Amino acid sequence: MESESGPPLSAAFLAMALGRRVRERVEDRLREHGIALRHLSALGHLHRRPGISYSELARRAGVTPQSMQDTLRRLEQLGAVERTTEPGRGRTAMLRVTDEGHRLRLAGRAVIDETDAAITGAGPDDHLTQSLRAALDRFPLEPERGAGE
User: Fold this and answer.
1) Is 62 part of a structural domain of the chain?
2) How far is Cα 137 from Cα 37, in angstroms, rounded to an integer?
3) 19-29: b or e for each residue (b if 16 or more CB lie within 10 Å)?
4) Could you tell me the pTM of the whole model?
5) Contacts of residue 107, Cβ cutoff 8 Å, sequence gap at least 6
6) Which residue, 20, 50, 52, 142, is the most exposed by fewest CB within 10 angstroms?
7) Helical pair 65-77 and 54-61, crossing angle rounded to 10 deg
8) Residues of the chain with pLDDT under 50
9) Count of domains observed in the chain
10) pLDDT attached to residue 103
11) Is 88 domain-assigned?
């Protein structure tokens, strides 16, 4: 692929440009549902790991605990999650995804699926997706950077 003014663009530049465009598209579409990508990520983690601690949730999302608190506060305002305390656990708060949270997660998942189809023109196991996964595996994150940066 050539740029408008010169030689072919490198794979690195193409990947970075695509990443920016995809993130903008996903964020715009999620905004229609009143959430951002960070909210969808938190809902996904809470759905897959009920009872996960705040610190583990932040670690998995690659953000600071304070940033995760802000994300969860917004999800609570939307009625997507509830904080509860279980008997015998002292003051430890547990998070529960509500019906509204499940609805938002599924709406967000549909946005991701539509974006995947726009990128690949196929399903999640097509050749391009496999190539992107392999390329991503060649660039592991440094442990202190986290998954969300």
Assistant:
1) yes
2) 22
3) eeeeeeebeeb
4) 0.78
5) 33
6) 142
7) 100
8) 146-149
9) 1
10) 98
11) yes
